[in-house]
Automatic annotation (TrEMBL):
This is Delta(14)-sterol reductase. One of its GO terms (biological process) is sterol biosynthetic process. Keywords: Lipid biosynthesis, Lipid metabolism, Membrane, NADP, Oxidoreductase, Steroid biosynthesis, Steroid metabolism, Sterol biosynthesis, Sterol metabolism, Transmembrane, Transmembrane helix. It comes from Ficus carica. Its EC number is 1.3.1.70. The lineage of its organism: Eukaryota, Viridiplantae, Streptophyta, Embryophyta, Tracheophyta.
Amino acid sequence: MDLGLLLSSLIPSWTSFYDLSFSLVSLWFPDQVCILAVFFIYLAIFGSFLPGKLVPGVVLQDGTRLHYRCNGLLSLLLLVMVLGIAAKMDVVSLTAISDRGLDLLSTTFLFSFLVTLVLYATGCNSRNQGSSLKPHVTGNLIHDWWFGIQLNPQFLGIDLKFFFVRAGMMGWLLINLSILARSIQDATLNSSMILYQFFSAFYILDYFVNEEYMTSTWDIIAESLGFMLGWWLLQNKVELTTASIIANCFVFIIGYLVFRGANKQKHVFKKNPKALIWGKPPKVVGEKLLASGYWGIARHCNYLGDLLLALSFSLPCGISSPVPYFYPIYLLTLLIWRERRDEARCAEKYREIWAEYRRLVPWRILPYVY
């Protein structure tokens, strides 16, 4: 899992590479640094102390397991409430983020780059032999920096991988709300903006309602920690037809059902391998690999749901330009690359069991296509 994901979540889009390069000049304007610093400090403090369900992670190779405090929904609601009150008192501006979008993108990019360098240096100096912190160095500097060399690096007792995933999701919602405030102030609110705002807000809130499912995903259990749309709608007014709105809703609903359903089935299976899947006993290969429900349709069916959701976030922008489709294209590339690495890892780990699973479930992501 790389911190590039943080960039794509915190700053969903940009209008042009020219504007981006121009904004690099203002990297260290105090406003941008202050916004990011306050945001991360808030998440670190309240994420550690607010009440929430303590969810055990998967058992690691050394027999240990991390525990995750799933209080993201409470942290998010409290943050939105505090910002709303502060805006009412004229302490902060609701459009502060949308007004500084490109500068925040630049600052976040530099922050992510520096964090990955620190993680690499810290990992190289680690003498911890536990599964979470033991460094896995290949000797290739670029490879080790990009992919990361520790499974679950920590800072002041905070699991950084879980922390940055949460930061990306919360940051995405704050960006959207700021853009929504700007469109209301400018009287440019239309069906495209409403559709995008509803889809993304539903997706983000659903993530935090079901945050514990994240603890059993590939990102958390296997990836090390190493290294897009609202602004387009503000600057390009898009009017959707009724048919387009219905089609967009259909893509979102199917994507959500597949994405959430697949992740939930896997999470429940890991906690209780005998739990019913779609009302029937699960089909299991080698007592380890689930081949029922969505996982009997494709070996990475959750990726299909994620891609459909990403597409539904871009469709409100229309099809007049490829720019709004950066995120689904980026995600498609990322997930195919990740799927290939996961296939190689599973083939090595499960051997003949994995070969049997592949025969039973031949499709990787999209049945009859890939």
